[in-house]
Write a structure and sequence with these properties.
By secondary structure, the chain is α/β, with parallel strands linked by helices. Helix 7 runs parallel beside helix 10. The protein is globular. The chain is built from 14 helices and 16 strands. Strand 9 and strand 10 form a beta hairpin. The strands form 4 sheets. Strands 4-3-6-1-8-11-2-12 form an 8-stranded mixed sheet, with helices on both faces. It has a 4-stranded antiparallel sheet with strand order 13-14-15-16, covered by helices on one side.
Length: 491
């Protein structure tokens, strides 16, 4: 009798385990979307051995890492607008940081989702945003020096939009934070573009965002509902401010400097800029420009600050991922790490984004999805507009509107590359640039010559030599491909 009862209990327990497993498998996957501001692919997992990024490296080992991911616009608000809507820019406002505020905020709800976050929300997901996901530092519309408003940038996308500004009081103050509770605005720009302070991670805003995300994950784990949680980290955006322990990871004297220290050959300076945003930090030791580059010593100091900021954010990402795993949510959660654009670290004498060169357009993209191949690197060219349709396919949702991108789910699941159209379009500075497997081809709508640039990435990966004039046949061959990306944004 005892044996029979024990057998029955074991059988029932096994049946319960099987049914529970099937129930879990049928649940739509959660989504954890991590936006990192100004994150170019300078991580150890991308081959930069100088950078300490153990948590993102560990995630990459479980994910698909895209080595050639390109944004559509090399500026924060415009890039995020394109990401969230799955659309390339068609009007000048789409190239500005005000794109989301002007095109989405304050608009009435329609049958078309305002973003892919809204799309998930309409399909039963509980959506939570923390930090900078759209353009605003905390998701609300107000000026840098104004009190926080109650007007959401994305009014239909979030069930909750959260941020802990700590001692900085508002999101924008926190975005430009210094450890004493001040910010760039309060100092009227009379601050250095970097800071190291002997404070814990929570001594700067991204540490507070990580803690907020961990607490929210605990709540979401209790809900009987799939979730979409997005966390927007500020660093390594200027100012390069991070706790001292992350600065201590680096020997500044051993850091490399740019392999592109000069303006490219056969390029008009109008294709570049004089680092206006960077030089807005007026107390910096030097104020580099195209005709007066930073010294090697200062370039290393700034790179030190950028890398320390990357390592700081890497640690915050690690905390969030560890909590996801502790709560046993990791097996059924899609994780995306996305950099909103790249950044010139003195490349072509520029400190900042806002160009349509490789350094400003190429950014980090790491995707982990249930059932995908772990630890692979894909060299196919993908665009930020491809992320919207990819997430929909992963979650078995249908588009509600026509999207400019294409799903790259096939690249997540197959080691052998499928047929793939290796083309990505980018827009800025009155120019349109197309990245193909071998070339970057750019045409500008301006008077300053030359207006056409061509870079061969097989021989010139750092884009130091514009060879358009010497290769008219390549220009002719690429022009029809470039024309497919001409959305009419420049009239």
């Amino acid at each position: 009798m005892i044996k029979k009862s024990l057998f029955t209990s074991v059988a029932l327990l096994s049946l319960w385990w099987i049914l529970s497993s099937l129930w879990v498998q049928k649940q739509p996957p959660n989504v954890l979307f991590l936006c990192i501001d100004d994150l170019r692919p300078d991580l150890n997992c991308y081959g930069n051995a100088e950078v300490h990024s153990p948590n993102l490296d560990a995630l990459a080992a479980e994910s698909t890492l895209f080595t050639r991911h390109y944004v559509t616009q090399p500026t924060c608000g415009a890039s995020r607008y394109s990401l969230l809507t799955g659309q390339r820019p068609t009007r000048p406002v789409h190239l500005t940081n005000a794109a989301i505020e002007k095109e989405i905020s304050g608009k009435a709800r329609t049958n078309t989702p305002e973003t892919f976050v809204d799309h998930f929300r309409r399909n039963g997901y509980y959506t939570v945003g923390i930090g900078k996901i759209s353009h605003s530092a905390d998701g609300y519309v107000y000026g840098y020096e104004e009190p926080k408003s109650d007007k959401l940038e994305l009014p239909c996308s979030w069930d909750e939009m959260l941020f802990d500004p700590g001692k900085w009081v508002t999101g924008w103050n926190a975005f430009f934070a210094y450890d004493d509770g001040s910010n760039r605005q309060s100092h009227k720009g009379q601050v250095k573009p970097y800071e190291s302070a002997d404070v814990p991670d929570e001594g700067y805003p991204d540490g507070l965002s990580a803690q907020l995300a961990m607490n929210k994950l605990k709540e979401l784990a209790e809900r009987k509902q799939p979730f979409f949680l997005s966390v927007g980290f500020f660093k390594p955006h200027l100012p390069f401010n991070a706790p001292q322990k992350y600065w201590d990871l680096y020997d500044e004297a051993k850091l490399s400097i740019s392999p592109s220290p000069t303006i490219p050959e056969n390029v008009n300076p109008a294709s570049l800029h004089n680092s206006g945003e960077f030089n807005g930090y007026k107390a910096g030791e030097e104020h580099p420009a195209l005709n007066s580059p930073a010294s090697d010593a200062y370039a290393r100091q700034l790179r030190h600050g950028y890398y320390a900021s990357v390592s700081y954010t890497d640690a915050q990402v690690g905390k969030v991922l560890a909590e996801l795993k502790r709560l046993k949510l990791d097996k059924n959660t899609i994780v995306v790490v996305w950099g909103d654009h790249g950044w010139h670290l003195g490349d072509h004498r520029v400190w900042g984004k806002h160009t349509i060169f490789e350094r400003a357009l190429r950014s980090a993209l790491i995707v982990k999805a249930p059932g995908s191949t772990a630890g692979q690197q894909r060299e196919e060219i993908v665009s930020s507009v491809d992320i919207y349709p990819t997430l929909l396919e992963l979650c078995q949702l249908k588009p509600a509107t026509e999207l400019d991108g294409k799903s790259f789910v096939s690249l997540l699941k197959k080691k052998k590359a499928p047929a793939w159209d290796n083309v990505a379009y980018s827009y800025f500075n009155r120019g349109i640039s197309v990245r193909t497997d071998r070339y970057r081809f750019t045409k500008y709508f301006r008077k300053q010559e030359p207006t056409v640039e061509l870079y061969d990435h097989t021989t010139d990966p750092n884009e130091n030599h514009n060879i358009a004039g010497q290769n008219p046949e390549v220009v002719e061959r690429l022009t029809p491909i470039w024309a497919k990306g001409n959305t009419g944004v420049y009239k």
